[in-house]
Amino acid sequence: xxxxxxxxxxxxxxxxxxxxxxxxxxxxxxxxxxxxxxxxxxxxxxxxxxxxxxxxxxxxxxxxxxxxxxxxxxxxxxxxxxxxxxxxxxxxxxxxxxxxxxxxxxxxxxxxxxxxxxxxxxxxxxxxxxxxxxxxxxxxxxxxxxxxxxxxxxxxxxxxxxxxxxxxxxxxxxxxxxxxxxxxxxxxxxxxx
Length: 193
Known about the structure:
Blueprint: H1 2-6, E1 12-13, E2 15-16, E3 24-31, E4 34-43, H2 48-51, E5 54-63, H3 64-79, E6 85-86, H4 88-96, E7 105-106, H5 108-118, E8 143-149, H6 155-160, E9 168-176
Parallel strand pairs: 6-7
Antiparallel strand pairs: 1-9, 2-3, 3-4, 5-8, 5-9
């Protein structure tokens, strides 16, 4: 449904804090079969839904402080995840370019943009509640490092080609297409090198 509106290849955004993508967070469907029951989710990229999806993985270098701020923000939401809902009404706000901000509610790209904004690494004047997944790569100093099927993403091979700057951490971000599974963006930390 969202893909038919945006016309974009990638329509879902998530954020991750590890290169292996074992810790991926977003706002989306809580059950694989029902796209209308949504909220804060820890995504399993090994699920059938994601294994069939295409993705684009981007990297972003942030300071340790920026990383900790973003991670803490996500952990605060995780602890209270049952209070959070999917911001369906906010999607209509995107369509008419009017921000719809609701307490304890996000849609996926709004969530990712809010995490990046909290970490002070979002370089976009647009309100996070108006950002679409296709705009996220332009919202910071992201570099494309992988594009293809989620099932083909090999974190160990990608990680071996990524270098860290002293005092800075490398993060990744990916967008996914996943049938009816709206937006996806992954921001992951490389823990070695």
